[in-house]
Queue: 4 jobs
Job 1
Amino acid sequence: MKNLIIGIIALLITSCGTIGAVIDSTKSVATGVLDMTVGTVSRVVSAVAEDVADTTAFVADTAAGTVQKAADKIDEETDQLQDEKESE
């Protein structure tokens, strides 16, 4: 009986160490996955924000160029009209 009790106590002590190791390993894996996920999400969000900023800048530049061309054309046409009135 004494040997049985000592055997059970030894088994419990060993299993507690194993359970502790499993818990520590699980924590390590979970924190590693969480760190990797957060880092990946951060990089994706940064890339999307950069793409949106680039696209917005392109659209703004294109719109500004179009407006400038229209203004130049209108100025050219009004100059021709003014020249015609001055000729008359």
Job 2
Amino acid sequence: MQRSWRIGIIGCGFIASEVHLPVLKQLGNVAIVAACDKDDRRLSHYGSLAGVAESGLYPDHRQMLLAANLDCAIVATPPSVHKEVVADCLNSGLGVLCEKPMAMSGDDALAMLAVASQCQRPLGVICNFLQFPEFVTLKQVMGELGPKAPRLITIRGRGLGMDAVMIQNYLGGRQSGFVSCDHRGGVLRDYGVHAIYVANYLLDAVPSAVTCVVQSAGHPGESVDTSVLCLLEYPTSHAAIDLSWEPRMTTDDRRFQRGSLDIDYDEALVEVSYLDRGDGLHAPALCVTAYDQAGKTVRQIPPASPRERLFASFGATFDRWFESGMHLTGPDDTARVGADAMVVVSACDRSSAARGTVRVEWQSNPDTSGADAPSSPREERAWQP
């Protein structure tokens, strides 16, 4: 008989109510029995949507942890408090699935891994782009091209496969938590972490050095980054990441709006193509194309709208977590993927401040057995869909 997990939601904003909740309602092995948010209106709205009794709504997560009988917490608060909230949940004996970015810094992310290992409780991070079919297909195509590493991976845009209309709706007229306050981060921590962990996944490695520039568009009252350009140096390859929330009036603006990912080899090129009708509403003609000496090979991805693709990626993420992640006694592979990404983000911060190249400081962190393991790409850390 399938177990039903009793879960509590901490943070009832857009991502929890408009994305997580519809997906969780489709799962047959979870029951949302409690929710927490400091904003009374947001909390009441979420409770109505999720069908949580008023007695299960809490203004403080510590009250919820004491009063509710939970198996797991999903943390969707601003990332500035992820470390504290996740630690409280783990110390209360719960499994925790945390939204990205895992934390505000690499040190905080590694500390969260350590708490999960010490408490012997499962910890996962929502790295849902790893469930996008184009990246799984891309990894397969790279394997077919042989063991030689590519020279360069280039990731550009406002959202890989997430059209400009959808992104603007997500930002909510610049009211997104990632834009409105310094302590919640900017494009580097919102979208950049996706690009970083996708590059790590495709190369099966983490970078040893970073050169990065982050910029703010200078909107009144804002100092968070709205554009980021960085070069990641891997042992046998490089990744260039060019991301922005700002429109670019260039000849390839359409491609930048939709997003692009290209992989350059000495004698081959592989690219992800997002082709649409330009209205941001219809399903893109999504394909992975490889060009080499044998000619052109196209892998078509089943058509789906950006919304459908996004929801499917969260569905696969939640399925994987409740089927296997919740049975672990420590951080799962997504938590390590999320921590690796945050170590790189911290290096990007240091590089931008220093206006030069910096080494990525890979430290040791405890694995689930208590032994020290490097926070770097190793077979036991490689993510598999």
Job 3
Amino acid sequence: MSEKSESVRVLVVDGAPDARAAFTGALGARFSLEFAKTAAEALAMVAARPPAVVLVAARLPDKSGAQLLAQLRERVPEATRLMFGPVDATLILEGVNQAAISRYIVTPWRAEELSAVLDEAVALSAQARHGRLLALGLLDARSVNGLSEAAASYAHDMCSPLSALATNLERLEQHVPAVANLGSQAGRAGVALDLAQRDATQELGDITHESQQSVGALTTLVEGLRSRARPPSGGASDVGMTLANVLPWLRALVADRGGELVVEHAASAPLALAPAELAGLLVQLVGDAAAVLAPALAQRKVTLQLAPERDGLRISVADTGPGLSKEERRQVERTKVTSTAPSLRPGLAPVRERAIRAGGSFQLESAVGQGTTVSVWLPCADAR
């Protein structure tokens, strides 16, 4: 990816004197980085402006990285939590048990690996933010009359984070033999491991195995939810009413990035799409556009247009973000909801699949330095 990714703010917490130079050299061209040297400094920065990703050293001057991440888990639960440090089973277990970290990165880290991890963090952060909005009642079925439709949609969208979690657990499992082998090598070298370290190595393997079982059980539950929920194509949306229900939250999504939301809406017939599906589509479209509004941009604006077209409705969302190259645009268009590969615009895959399920179409127009416009056409209820 040639352009800087502004869809994620990364807070790096490391007390090492050369931390800023090292991380800026490896990641500064692609990510918006902020730095703190202590846990206290990091907490103050998070209170002023929550980050999307937190990358914390396992050992800090004033407390452990796991202790800080545990606090951040409570304060900014949608932020992706990453920790880095030496190969140490005790440190890894602290991160997993205390802070539910998404990844432990072994030092010395490689720039390519770290960059790939942060790409994954973009998708995970977007999924977490969407889930938080749902929990606040943004898509409450009582306000949009579609509980079973919402269940089918949300179960479908949950597949992506579950797949990413399963992949990360497989990677963690691959490190378990390496940690155990280090203990054997230390024993042969005459370096004794205490009982706690040996127990920690065993516990790491047990946790990995139990977590994989939990992912399997969650996947089974999601599939059950999808099979029992009524398909989302079985309702009709009053476009004006649905827009009015979600508009305050759409404005909040854009304002959170320091931007302005402009809405242009012309009356249209009811759509062949359940209200919960339409609300979810609007949230995904506007939220994805808002995510690229970086502070460095001269103008931060998202324009939402809803206008009748043929026997349906054209929904267009344009942003003033950095835009995408041709190759980046193709990569976004190929990304699927269930894909575990990182995506530059992770919110667009669910939009595309929702539109296609409803019998509509999806278009993406973008150029570097000229922003991005996403356009979705949906059929009216009478046209189906």
Job 4
Amino acid sequence: MNPGHAGNGAPPPVRRARRGDLAIEHRADVSADLVVEAIARHQAHDRLGREACEKWGPGSSLSRVGLAEGTLLRDLAVKLHRWRGLRGALSDGWRGSRAVRARGGCERLAQCGVDSPALVAIAERRRAGIVLESWVLSEFRANAQPLPVALATLAAERQRRRELLAAVGDLVGTLHAAGVDHPDLKPSNLLVGADGALALLDLDALVPPRRLTWRRRVRALGQLEAYARDLQPWLTRTDHVRVLRAYLARNPSLQGEGRQLANEAVAWAVRRVAEWSRRDRGERGHYPLAPRPPGEPSRPIPGRRA
């Protein structure tokens, strides 16, 4: 298990445990019993729905859980990947559960030098060899915000906003320069730290590796463009250009094709936004992520002990 980019030297050793029908793989500095308790806390949040979770939808949910272990307070992001029917079961049987893929994605990302929250544990519940649900526990970054929220707070700060957008283009460009394709580059999968540094989420999407084609480059930039048009229609043309310029700086071989890449990404985004406009927004779960109003106090850690 790769612990993410905690910056503390060699990763802690990994241990395996079983609690009932739950198979757990966890860092040695975290007990299996704490993993079980964290999962139970998230299950309670998940039953309450989106208001109790950081993310909530038909395929997965995530909430913040604080638990005491000895003298330490563990601040965790606990993510549940739900049962996805027969097709999902076949995919999990062929590729590994989404938790196992998240572990592999974390290892791939570390090779690119792109940041991600440190992985703490993964767990699976199976029946007759079929994955019913899987779990990913990582360190919660209390001072980080999803990209849409961060952009909303910088609406009136042009220079900082453009620096952040350039960082987005740089991150995607870094991935693509390393030949890594992330097929779900929506803004809610990008965390912005207090210093403006970015971290990438939903790392199960990195496994299995996909060959980085021109169409996948267009899709990645088109996804970001589509969400920007839907969530931040107030962004200027110069704001949008900052993303592409930083992306091309990481992929200099594409400099001569930059205009074509931009045009195709915009066309992709226009088609996607048109598709979204025909849907009932009430059916879209947590998409698009509604930014919390700037200055709204953050929620306390659910389950935090005094």
